[in-house]
Structure formats: structure tokens, C-alpha cells
Amino acid sequence: MNTNKYTHLEISVPNIQHNLKYFRSFLRESTKLLVLVKAYGYGHGIGEFSRILEDNGVDYLAVAFPGEGVAIREAGVKLPVIVLSGGMEHYPLLIQNQLEPSLPGPEAFQRFASEAYTMNRKDYPVHIKLDTGMHRLGAEEADIQSLIEILPETGSVKIASVFSHFVASGEPKNDDFTRQQIARFETLSGLLTDHLDYKPMRHLLNSPGIERFAAEAQYDMARLGIGLYGMSYVDRSRLKPTAFLKTPVLQVKTVQPGETVGYSRAGKVTRPNTRIATLAIGYADGVNRHLSNGKASFSVNGHRAPTIGNICMDMCMLDVTGIDVKPGDMVTVFGDDPTIFELADILETIPYEILTSVAYRVPRVYSF
Ligand SMILES: *Cc1c(COP(=O)(O)O)cnc(C)c1O
């Protein structure tokens, strides 16, 4: 554990390695592993974090937008990177940075192939996304027919992989639908690959897919996202938290009944000699304002202390009455206690949103 006395998101590399090992244990040795580092690596950082993943034997990375891929290249990472939701106007930027597009249909395919041709590329790796039930992005059967027709004129690109995305692979109540997606993937991917004189990789598993469907739908690669960051859909005790949002106490005051704490007088003091600790973190850092007024409590010196008053932009206050707290003591907003799951439950959201809400201005500190 680091001893930094400023607001930061600590990333535990040993815990990343632990979680990586857990997910690898479901996969054959020959199955490649792609890690999703979209949304700033689910909050964990992008450049340096991608380098850590590269050092830990990850085979592929994926991001949502081209800028995230450029950040990975600027960090010197050589791994192949798929850009999942880049628009057509960014295709030249992708090619300049050796980033591989996910192409959801014939229009995108044709456009990318023609950009690659203009830029004198041959066999540039692209990934075809199939829609097997999400109905977000991806080629359906008719699109695949059109793709097959234009394939012969597109030597500038080569299909490195064909893939699709599960809708609800972590939810047993939707397992029939997940199996339907697997069957559709089998059919649609076959339709395409039957017309190729080479064999692209195929991949379908996301994090819960790895835990629950590795035997049925492993194919050539698996795409690990939230699982790496500590979320299991099967048994949370098997995984470790990877991100710890920490902030120092700036000041501690004693406030009496009748007084209030923070904006709008929302934090009413009722106990004599109430001790208030002010923290160097606010909603602009990713501490959701709906955690105000005791909705959440954070840990300090082995105790949990509730928020009091409204969370401010750059600060927030805790009621630390009865806890031995002084300026400079570090508070954990999330990590092992509370967990991202606890905050997600309070906010009626999913752990993904807790992790991806940590602001860019919060430095990421990697502990090894
Ligand atoms: C985000 C994403 C994943 C990872 O999903 P998790 O639920 O975090 O495992 C996998 N594949 C695609 C296409 C994605 O967009």
C-alpha cells in the first residue's frame, strides 16, 4: 500500500494479477485474452495501465474511441488494439496509429477498406462485429450477404476476427437467450468465414461469459472487462478489489447542535461536540452527490464514518464523532471497505459506473 497523502486512485497490480489468473483458469492455454481498457481502463488508467497489462501477458486490448487507442500507442504499447465504436471519420487516424477497427456492417467495411487502400495498406486487420441479439451495433444476416459480395474487391483489409457480444451472460434467468446468441453466432460467423480462404479468430465471451460459458463458447479469444476489475457474477469472494479511491482529511472541527454543515444547511448537527472531517474530494472527482447526507459512509482509521451535508464539488464532510481522526489521515471512499458493490447498490447502478466515474483529475497510482 502506498503512503500518498493526496487524493488518488490506487491501483493494486497484485490484485489485477490475481483476477487475471482467476479468469485465465477457465480458458484453454491456446485461447487468447483481450482486456477491455475502454473508459480509461474502467477508471484504472490507459497508457501506463495498458503497459502493465502487456507485461502481464495479455494478448489484445480494446477501447471504445480512437483517442483511447492513441493514448495506448503514445505509451509505447505494441499490443493489437481494437477500437469498438469509432466513427468513419476517424478511420485515417486509426490507420496512422495501427489501431484495428470493429466494423459493424458493409458500409463501414467498404469505407474502411477504401481508406486503407488510399493509405497503401494491404491486409490491414479489421474485426467484424455481428449482432446476435443486442441490437446495438453489428451485422445481421442480410449485412453479411452484402459483405460477402464486396469481399473480393477489398485486398486492403483482412478480417482478423469475427465477434459478437452477450446481452446477459451473467444472468441465469437469461441463459436460454445466451444459448440462442451462441447459436446465432455459430450460424452468422460460419456464413461469413465460409467465403474466406483463411480463418479469422472468433470470440464471444465477456467477463461473465468466461465464468459461465467457457465450455460452450470459448472460440479463439475471450474479452475480459469488469471481471479483471473485481466483479464476479458467480462468486465475488474469488476476486480482489483493484481500485482504491483515497483522499486525505484536510481539517477536523467540532460543531454544536443548531449549526449546519455545508451548502443549503443540509447537514444538521444534532449531537453535542459533533466532529466533522473535511475531505479533499468532491463530486467533480467522482464522488456522486447522491451519496450526501449519510447515504454512504467511508472508512477512516478502521471505522466507517457517514457523509454529512451535501457533497461539494471539491470537498465533502464526514461525521467522525467518536473516531480518532486528524488532518492528513487517509479515507477510503471505495476499494475494500466500502466496495464498489456497496456504492453501486446505494446509487442503484452497476459497479461499472462507480469505477468509470472517477475523474481524470484524480491521479492513478500503481502499487506493485
Ligand atoms: C465492454 C465490452 C466487453 C466487456 O464487458 P464486461 O461486462 O466488462 O466483461 C466485452 N466485449 C465488448 C464488445 C464490450 O464492448
Low-confidence stretches are: none
What is the terminal separation in angstroms?
9 Å
CATH topology of the largest domain: TIM Barrel
Any guess at the CATH architecture of the largest domain?
A: Alpha-Beta Barrel
User: Got a strand count?
Assistant: 18
Q: What is bound: which ligands?
A: pyridoxal-5'-phosphate
Summarize the biggest pleated sheet: 8 strands, mixed
- CATH class of the largest domain, named Alpha Beta
Pattern of helices and strands: EHEHHEHEHEHEHEHEHEEEEEEEEEHHE
Overall structural class, as computed from helix and strand content, comes to alpha/beta
The tally of helices reads 11
Please give the share of residues in helix: 25-40%
Bulk shape? elongated
CATH superfamily of the largest domain: Alanine racemase
Residues in β-strands, percent: 15-25%
pLDDT averaged residue by residue: 97
Domain unit count: 2
Radius of gyration: 24 Å
Strands, helices and their partners?
Blueprint: E1 8-12, H1 13-24, E2 32-36, H2 38-42, H3 47-55, E3 60-63, H4 66-74, E4 81-83, H5 91-96, E5 100-103, H6 106-118, E6 124-130, H7 141-150, E7 157-164, H8 175-193, E8 201-205, H9 207-213, E9 221-224, E10 243-255, E11 260-261, E12 267-268, E13 274-279, E14 297-300, E15 303-306, E16 316-319, E17 330-334, H10 340-346, H11 351-356, E18 364-367
Parallel strand pairs: 1-18, 2-3, 2-9, 3-4, 4-5, 5-6, 6-7, 7-8, 8-9
Antiparallel strand pairs: 1-10, 10-13, 10-17, 11-12, 13-16, 14-15, 14-17
Helix pairs in contact: 3-4
The protein binds pyridoxal-5'-phosphate.
Residues 36, 84, 165, 206-207, 223, 225-227 line the site of pyridoxal-5'-phosphate.
